[in-house]
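User: Sequence in, structure out. Go.
Assistant: Echoing your sequence, followed by the structure tokens.
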Amino acid sequence: MPNFPNPFFRWRPHPWHGLEVGSDQPKTVNAFIELTPFDTIKYEVDKKTGYMRVDRPQRSSSLPPSLYGFIPRTYCGDKVGALSKQDVKGDADPLDICVLSERPIDRNEVILSARVIGGLHMVDKGEADDKIISVLENDTYYKDIHSVNDLPPVLLERLRHYFGTYKLIPGKESNDVYVDGIFDEDHAYKVIQASIEDYETMYGE
């Protein structure tokens, strides 16, 4: 009888529902990467099949300033929305995460361990669309970074500017997507825990 590792997946698990949040969550979590800083196409996991789908070409010429994806087995529902100072609900998607890495990682559809240091509170058409900010676990360049407050301000400004503008449509004056603020690692832990509880409410364990 084959000596398979435990756990063993004979078939590929769904990136959202079949992977683990992380063994040391909410401080360190798994991230499934959909976009890299080299992508001008917006890719997104197809929620039904788990395969990568081309969502759209990016409307602006700016590139994502970090790796970008989501935390498995999370869901932005009522509990995530309740953490906002705005009167919003969760966006009914898995919780988004940005991962900073010193060395360029130019491929998506990878899993990595990310150490949480804070986040952006973003509101998209009246829904909470938070972006957790993290650093690649075991990246020695970021080993002393434990909070967004330890990052160079210009790096935070790039993240804030990108997510505040990446859905802008040429010729449209108003923008119903905006970044409402930056939060530290303690609040990020609360957002992650709320998204885990929202997931359990929505889908079970």
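User: And one key feature?
Assistant: The chain has three helices and ten strands.
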